[in-house]
Design a protein that fits this description.
Elements: H1 3-11, H2 16-41, H3 44-47, H4 49-62, H5 68-79, H6 89-100, H7 110-126, H8 130-147, H9 150-167, H10 170-186, H11 190-207, H12 210-226, H13 230-246, H14 250-267, H15 270-286, H16 290-301, H17 309-325, H18 329-346, H19 349-365, H20 369-401, H21 404-429, H22 431-467, H23 478-495, E1 499-506, H24 509-516, H25 518-535, E2 541-544, E3 549-555, H26 559-574, E4 589-595, H27 602-618, E5 624-626
Parallel strand pairs: 4-5
Antiparallel strand pairs: 1-3, 1-4, 2-3
Helix pairs in contact: 2-4, 2-5, 5-7, 6-7, 7-8, 7-9, 8-9, 9-10, 9-11, 10-11, 10-20, 11-12, 12-13, 13-14, 14-15, 15-16, 15-17, 16-17, 17-18, 17-19, 18-19, 19-20, 24-25, 25-26
GO molecular function: diguanylate cyclase activity
Cofactor: Mg(2+)
Domain GGDEF: 497-627
Length: 627
């Protein structure tokens, strides 16, 4: 039972029915909140950002202020809600994440804390500080493995894989993205699978395997068209166009870019339209349509800011190419510097290589052969670095495709065995070192034994709990409640405090089993157990002591208060909505109440309660009687 409701019971014991109804309302709100969290986990933000924001606002009205777990879970959801394409929102998001991470309650919920740190790292990447972001992703992945939180491992590796891919580190990118893909599949998160598959396709595109990239992109494109998610389908179509451009299919790429450009224009999405315009300019330059390319760049300049490093860098790279064609060499150098600064911030080696080749061409036109040579030499160095990464990536692909991992693992074991033999020889020659190793191993064995003993003790505690619990209703069983009642009886007599019991059972329970079957009978018993939990306070306990027989012990409760509670219990059962049960099903209970007197013991107290129960049965059932 929630803590606020527990306090309400202490202060307003006379309002027990009202408190129970409030408990039901809180439980219903928690169910709604948990359903929203599930929708968020399943990827609602990917397909409908406005619905995502609406959900987060709804959580404010559903979650109690003292519900720490859900409040922190809400902070996690809100952290990922900021629109990075709106000016100033990245800074706002970073400020939110910083403040959220100062919550002292995060120490009790390490997964919440780690997700907030991952969120902050992602916004750091969006701000352009990729070095800090990469360190953050590395730490997040390590911490997620320690917590064994597979979802956070998948998210962190997917994000790091994207960053590696953009930087040209294709080996690391594919390893991260393929690992994340497997985890998303195991976690049954299809929306995140598709998003990650999109990044895998991008990695293949940047790697140069455009055919594989287009195959993956088209698979995703068909899926998004089928689900009528045209925004995402249009974004994927742009990626297909980029791959087609790399394959030299310039007219196809141009047609796709034009279709996307018009689509975003009709929707009034200027930023998205601007990004397509930058890509279109690159294709038009390859088609030698420089004037048309300039018009697209002019339309994008207003919306592409330096914080959008990727598009900003390529915008100025393409602008420099146009200036070179127009023989505006000073302006071309200016654009090259702007592009270089952006490429260096995000460490995009591919972009830097293209830039160096372009700069060399500009110097050639200026007859500055020394500078042209230096730029070309830097281009060659960058290209060699890319070639090494490509070779490493191809090696990774071959290892994945031909299952070379198994051979590598076997070789690793052989090497480890050889190392062990070398260590054994060294131990024979160094007796002192051998003694220390033996001591260390002994300590390790003691540690393992201690851990085993601790786990066995925990297991015994669990078995003990199970032995005292009724398997069907999950209430305490007869053995537990009688022992507890005996202790409370003696305690009440010693302290001269009131103590009462309620004995109740289901009316005509045999007829329920005969008419509706034992499965329905079991459901009825579970309903009685649930009703007890809703009505009783934390110090009051109910137990199943027989087939349909229950016993409630009430410390610090006199007979009059117990009688009032018994009547409430009878009324709650009688007024239950039985629509989930078969037609014609009804359920009532009869209850007997007894209070402890000076000369009573537990046996006599229980006998009085049973006698009162029989009297309730004789008087027509569906009622409570006092002894």
């Amino acid at each position: 039972m929630q803590k606020p409701l527990f306090l309400a019971k202490v202060f307003f014991i006379a309002s027990l029915l009202l408190t129970s109804s409030l408990s039901f309302a809180d439980a219903e709100n928690n169910q709604k909140a948990d359903a929203i969290f599930k929708a968020i986990d399943n990827g609602i933000a990917i397909n409908d950002h406005q619905q995502y924001l609406s959900y987060i606002n709804e959580l404010d009205s559903l979650i109690e202020p003292n519900d720490a777990w859900r409040q922190l879970r809400k902070d996690r959801a809100r952290c990922w809600s900021f629109d990075i394409y709106k000016e100033g929102q990245v800074a706002v998001a970073l400020a939110f994440a910083e403040k959220a991470l100062t919550n002292p309650l995060l120490a009790q919920y390490p997964s919440h804390k780690l997700d907030l740190m991952l969120c902050k790292t992602w916004y750091v990447e969006q701000s352009g500080d990729v070095d800090t972001a990469l360190k953050g992703y590395n730490k997040a992945i390590n911490d997620a493995y320690i917590l064994e939180d597979l979802r956070l491992v998948a998210d962190a590796r997917s994000m790091r894989g994207y960053l590696h891919s953009y930087q040209g580190n294709f080996t690391h990118a594919l390893e991260d993205l393929i690992t994340a893909q497997s985890m998303y599949q195991n976690l049954n998160l299809p929306a995140w699978e598709e998003l990650n598959l999109y990044e895998i396709a991008n990695a293949y595109r940047r790697l140069g395997d455009q055919t594989s990239a287009i195959r993956y992109f088209k698979q995703l494109h068909r899926s998004k068209i089928a689900s009528q998610n045209f925004d995402v389908a249009n974004t994927i179509s742009v990626s297909i166009a980029i791959a087609e451009e790399e394959l030299g299919q310039l007219d196809r790429a141009k047609a796709r870019f034009n279709e996307a450009y018009l689509y975003w224009g009709e929707k009034g999405e200027h930023m998205a339209q601007a990004t397509v315009a930058v890509n279109m300019a690159g294709t038009l330059i390859k088609l030698a349509e420089f004037k048309q390319a300039q018009r697209y760049i002019d339309s994008a300049v207003e919306y592409i800011s330096p914080s959008d490093e990727g598009f900003y860098a390529f915008l100025h790279l393409f602008q420099a190419q146009i200036y070179l064609n127009e023989n505006k060499l000073a302006a071309a150098h200016t654009s090259v510097e702007k592009a270089r600064s952006a490429f260096m911030r995000v460490k995009n080696i591919t972009g830097l290589a293209q830039l160096q080749q372009l700069e060399s061409d500009i110097f050639v036109k200026q007859n500055d052969w020394q500078q042209a040579y230096q730029s070309l030499n830097e281009y060659v160095n960058l290209h060699n670095e890319l070639d090494k990464k490509l070779l490493s990536t191809h090696t990774t692909e071959m290892r994945t495709r031909f299952n070379a991992d198994q051979i590598e693992q076997e070789n690793k074991h052989l090497i480890e065995n050889q190392q062990l033999r070398d260590i054994e020889l060294a131990m024979l020659e160094q007796n002192k070192l051998q003694q220390w190793i033996i001591i260390l191993l002994g300590g390790l064995i003691l540690l393992i034994i201690s851990i085993f003993a601790y786990k066995q003790n925990q297991k015994n505690k669990l078995l003990s709990t199970l032995a005292l619990t009724d398997d069907l209703t999950q209430l305490p069983n007869r053995r537990y409640i009688y022992d507890k009642a005996e202790q409370l009886t003696e305690q009440a007599k010693n302290t001269q405090t009131p103590f009462s019991v309620i004995s109740f059972d289901a009316d005509n329970f045999k007829a329920i089993n005969d008419n509706f079957g034992h499965e329905v009978g079991d459901l009825a018993l579970k309903l009685l157990a649930k009703t007890c939990r809703n009505v009783l306070s934390s110090e009051q306990e109910a137990a199943r002591v027989g087939g349909e027989e229950f016993l409630i012990i009430l410390p610090n409760t006199d007979k009059a208060q117990a009688y009032k509670l018994a009547r409430t219990l009878v009324q709650q059962v009688s007024n239950t909505d039985f629509k989930s049960f078969p037609p014609g099903f009804t359920l009532t209970i009869s209850a007997g109440v007894a209070g402890l007197k000076t000369d009573d013991n537990l046996a006599s107290l229980l006998k009085q309660a049973d006698h009162a129960l029989y009297q309730a049965k004789a008087n027509g059932r569906n009622q409570a009687q006092m002894s």
